[in-house]
Amino acid sequence: GWSAQGGFEIYVDDATIGLQLYDALAEAGKQFDIGPGCPNLIERIEAGLMTYGSDITRADTPLEAAMEQYVSLDADIEAIGLDAIRAVAKRGINRRVCGLKIDGPKVPANRNPWPVKVGGKQIGSVTSAVWSPRLETNVSLGQLAIDYTAVGTQVTVQTPDGEFDAKVSQVPFS
């Protein structure tokens, strides 16, 4: 699933059994308060879950996408792309996905990436952002030049509503 909670996605080859399966699962799940879910933008960003096509793309390696814990560079195996990822790890990455907390009022929906700057120089972009009622601040995911990805780094985010100070943050957000 696409949330910070455990869950399952179920696909069927035969659309004619879909409603029957749904009804059977709903009935069986009642006693456990189990029900259907849907994507929740706030929860997704707070948890640091990236969206393919927005936060990461085919152009991003697992190292740039902050997913190095899922790659064993020392494994004695053959895997498509492993040599390429090892080469990237050896030379180092130039950018990385990270979290940012953005000061100011609730940010609007970001349909396009917002520039992230330091000293007027663009060093990356915010790709997903939302107001977090739980944390009482704007939280976002973006890609920044590697030299600016340390937690606590101060940056400026250019939103449609103006420029706001932001700080690189650990994800999941807390």
Give the integer mean of the pLDDT values: 93
State the secondary-structure class: alpha+beta
H/E element order: HHHEEEEEE
Largest beta-sheet characterization = 6 strands, antiparallel, barrel
> What is the fold-level CATH name, i.e. the topology of the largest domain?
Gyrase A, domain 2
Principal-axis shape: flat
CATH architecture of the largest domain: 2-Layer Sandwich
Q: Radius of gyration, rounded?
A: 19 Å
| N→C terminal distance | 21 Å
Residue fraction in strands:
25-35%
Strands of the widest sheet, in order across it, are 1-4-3-2-5-6
Name of the CATH homologous superfamily of the largest domain: Probable tRNA modification gtpase trme, domain 1
Which characteristics define this entry?
Gyrase A, domain 2; alpha+beta; six-stranded antiparallel β-barrel; 174 residues; 6 strands
Structure notes:
Helices cover 17% and strands 28% of the residues. It is of the alpha+beta class and 174 residues long. It folds into 2 domains: 38 residues; 127 residues, Gyrase A, domain 2. A 6-stranded antiparallel barrel has the order 1-4-3-2-5-6. Strand 2 and strand 3 form a beta hairpin. The radius of gyration is 19 Å and the shape is flat. It starts with 17 loop residues before the first helix and ends in a 5-residue tail after the last strand. The mean pLDDT is 93.
Kindly summarize this structure in a few lines.
The chain has 174 residues and is an alpha+beta fold. The chain has helices spanning 18-29, 41-47, 82-91; strands at 95-102, 114-118, 121-132, 137-145, 154-159, 162-169.
